[in-house]
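Go through this one:
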Amino acid sequence: MNEMKKDAPKEPVFNAPWPAVGLSGLILALYALQSHFDTRDVVPYAFGLNPTLLFSQGSYDTLVTSMFLHGSWTHAGFNAFVALVAASALVRAFGTNGRSVALFFIYYLLGGVLTGLIYCLLFPQQNILIIGASGAISTILGAAIRIGKGRLSGTESRWVAGVTIFWIVMNGFYVAAAMQQGDIAVVWQLHIIGFLIGLFSIGVWMRLFRPQFFRAPDVN
């Protein structure tokens, strides 16, 4: 008997969760506005993070505002791409209802703020202007590599250790070819600090705000 089999529904090629797409798109959209309207680079100097000014002038708002600025399309594009990849894994673990999405973006923002603050505490005399979402994105990347099905990979696992070493080595190459334009710098240390924050904080965050993640049933 010849029967025509129904074609199984195809998995979409692009199926990133909408909050991840939204974050990536926001990075690109904000830089498009910045590059179009701020032709004299006034905005980065007004809202960028400067370690020497953070404590002396109390410009703590720049810990947040600096995350929404970028130095070039290459800078914004790379961050948008990494954000899409890392955020997709985290959002799937967090969920896509209103509360879960809010918790994801709070985690993202706190990671960026904490990364910038630690950098400024470590290098308080650096009179440079720091812009970009690299700290926050590195945080969610460090967190994302630990996400499994209903569990978190240990920091000592081969996968996590391998990606961590790769991230550090890649940033070593970044240092060798460091890009600096005027007084605006994107510092490699932020990438390492943010990555480590994500690596070691995601377990606590998930147990506090998403305990059901650890009770997720296995899917065979």
Observations:
- The beta strands are 129-130, 180-181, 184-185.
